[in-house]
Amino acid sequence: NAGVTQTPKFQVLKTGQSMTLQCAQDMNHEYMSWYRQDPGMGLRLIHYSVGAGITDQGEVPNGYNVSRSTTEDFPLRLLSAAPSQTSVYFCASTPHGGRETQYFGPGTRLLVL
Amino acid sequence: GQNIDQPTEMTATEGAIVQINCTYQTSGFNGLFWYQQHAGEAPTFLSYNVLDGLEEKGRFSSFLSRSKGYSYLLLKELQMKDSASYLCAVRDPGDSNYQLIWGAGTKLIIKP
Predict the structure, then answer these.
(1) Over chain A, what is the mean pLDDT?
(2) Cβ–Cβ gap A31/B98 under 8 Å
């Protein structure tokens, strides 16, 4: 199993550009989420999904869209990039039930100029 | 409001013991997690507590007191590879029953 994969690993954008951060998992986990991690702050939840076709907003959803057409994929779209979106983005998946440990992807470092 | 507090940074010596504290104030509680995160990498799961008491797993132990809103992570026989950030997270049932609220993390520096 590859676990949780994310692409790209690093991206530089100009203000106003759009892009999609890719996330995929091969563990058949129902629950997936996107976080951003900024220095001095805890991980903040952007959007999450409890299953294919179902998404919901987290703590900081503005400026981001998500979709969940399959169990495996959960892309995050930046609609019009802003310098405030410079951050490290982590995708995570969680099996339904049990201790519900979150499994994280390797992260995407995004710099918006 | 929702709040999780951890020390920002701690320093310890190789071979010693260190305790990293976490206090939390959340509207609900359904478990507390500790994750380890090496610089430039993703967080990885260390431990989970939902009942009061101590959970031991090799060199690492985690303690929970729900009445005090308090947890600690105890690392024994410290090794240089233990230099990392340690993240405390609380699961709050909230609207989805899966949301985690994260502390900012404690950066642990191990000196020879």
Answers:
(1) 93
(2) yes
